Amino acid sequence: IPAVPAIDFSQFGPVREEPLTRLRKVGAFNLHRSWLNVPHVTQFEEADITELETFRKAQKEKGVKMTPLPFIIKACVHALKAIPQFNASLNPTGDALIMKDYFHIGFAVDTPDGLLVPVIRDADKKSLTQLAQETVELAAKAKDKKLSPAEMQGACFTISSLGSIGGTAFTPIVNTPEVGILGVSKASMKPVWNGKEFMPRLMLPLCLSYDHRAINGADAARFAAVLAAALGDIRELLL
Ligand code: CAO
């Protein structure tokens, strides 16, 4: 790769040098490695979460703190079961897929020192309430630098939710050796045509990046559609 030339920025104005934390250095290395190794494609989708939001708010009124994240984790498990190519890793020689029969889901947590990705083990065996509690506990541990190495290993698929901050879409980088990552942006009210009229619906932007060596575009479009359908009608998750 052509090197970026070193520049003395002080010739343009005052500067300060701030060393990167160890975590940010490790993160930068992993992101760069993935960016260089993986042919990335990002599939965009929108989920109508109007009904989900009504249910979530009702739970909140009963005292259960629940953001959209536990619903998204459940929907991802549902989609991984429906399209198992996403629950896989390429073997080291790149000529076979290692299919996984477990469902561990990582989620990105923004901490002052950098990005951490704690992992919810066996997310398929956990209720929404358990997932809600566990995400809150793991995010708090990440922010307090108390995650053990085991709590950051073994993910099948990662979720990066920037929805509480904003944005309409972004293109997340796959957390190799996983083959897919779901970016979630901020839900917003939009006029949606129901065949007769425009209705105000709460729409959640989904951005699914994937390793195009392991997954073809049609499967990615199916995965995103399954996710959107499950978030649009959470009864799908009972099937
Ligand atoms: N759209 C609209 N609102 C959303 C939303 C979305 N997609 N996602 C969350 N919100 C709301 C929540 O519902 C909550 O509001 P209420 O209290 O009214 O319910 C509020 O935003 C704050 O949510 P939160 O941030 O406390 O919780 P979370 O479960 O959404 O996220 C965590 C937890 C750990 C994922 C988040 O704190 C975080 O660190 N996100 C950053 C991840 C990141 O940096 N990714 C980039 C990786 S690539 O560089």
Automatic annotation (TrEMBL):
Highest taxon of source: Bacteria
Function according to Swiss-Prot or TrEMBL: The pyruvate dehydrogenase complex catalyzes the overall conversion of pyruvate to acetyl-CoA and CO(2). It contains multiple copies of three enzymatic components: pyruvate dehydrogenase (E1), dihydrolipoamide acetyltransferase (E2) and lipoamide dehydrogenase (E3).
Sorted UniProt keywords: Acyltransferase, Lipoyl, Repeat, Transferase
Native source species: Zooshikella ganghwensis
Lineage of source species: Bacteria, Pseudomonadati, Pseudomonadota, Gammaproteobacteria, Oceanospirillales
Gene that specifies this protein: aceF
Family: Belongs to the 2-oxoacid dehydrogenase family.
Residues of the full protein shown: 301 to 539 of 539
One of the record's GO molecular function terms: lipoic acid binding
Any single biological process term in GO: pyruvate decarboxylation to acetyl-CoA
Signal peptide annotation: none
Subunit structure: Forms a 24-polypeptide structural core with octahedral symmetry.
CC terms in the record's Gene Ontology section: cytoplasm; pyruvate dehydrogenase complex
Record's protein name: Acetyltransferase component of pyruvate dehydrogenase complex
